Task: inverse folding
C-alpha cells in the first residue's frame, strides 16, 4: 500500500503559476532607538497583517524587541518585495505615530520612524544541490 499524498499547504496556486516564496524581513527604527512596547508591537503586527492582506500576501510570523521587528511573509511572484516593504514601513509608521504620539515622540523626532534600510532574506526553499539533482532527473528518456 502506497502512502497517501498530502498537498503541501505552503505551495500556492495562481491562474498561471504555482509558487512558494517566503522572505524574512527585519526593520529597525531610525537610529535604532527602542520605541517598541508590547502594546506597540501588537498594534504594529495588526497593521502589518492588514497591509499584507492588501498585497494578497500572508504575514506568517511576526515578532520584535524594543529596537527591531522580524517578519516572515509568504508572497506571490507578482508582488515586488521592495514595494511591499515600502508599504509595510510607510503605513505602520504613519499609524503608530497617530496612535502613540507621546510615546513615539520620546524616541523619534521629525517625520522619521523606520531606518531607510532593511534586511531581506529568501527562505523556505530546497538547497540548490537538491534542485539541481531534480532538474537533472527530468531529462527526457533516450
Result:
Amino acid at each position: 500500500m502506497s502512502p497517501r499524498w498530502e498537498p503541501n499547504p505552503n505551495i500556492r496556486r495562481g491562474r498561471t503559476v504555482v509558487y512558494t516564496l517566503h522572505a524574512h524581513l527585519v526593520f529597525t527604527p531610525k537610529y535604532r532607538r527602542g520605541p517598541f512596547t508590547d502594546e506597540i508591537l501588537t498594534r504594529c503586527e495588526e497593521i502589518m497583517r492588514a497591509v499584507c492582506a492588501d498585497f494578497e500576501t500572508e504575514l506568517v510570523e511576526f515578532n520584535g524587541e524594543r529596537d527591531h521587528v522580524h517578519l516572515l511573509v509568504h508572497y506571490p511572484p507578482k508582488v515586488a518585495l521592495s514595494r511591499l516593504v515600502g508599504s509595510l514601513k510607510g503605513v505602520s509608521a504613519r499609524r503608530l505615530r497617530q496612535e502613540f504620539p507621546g510615546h513615539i515622540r520620546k524616541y523619534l523626532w521629525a517625520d522619521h520612524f523606520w531606518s531607510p534600510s532593511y534586511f531581506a532574506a529568501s527562505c523556505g526553499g530546497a538547497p540548490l544541490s537538491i534542485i539541481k539533482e531534480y532538474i537533472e532527473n527530468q531529462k527526457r528518456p533516450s
The beta strands are 12-13, 18-19, 21-27, 58-65, 68-75, 119-123. The chain has four helices and six strands. The mean pLDDT is 84.
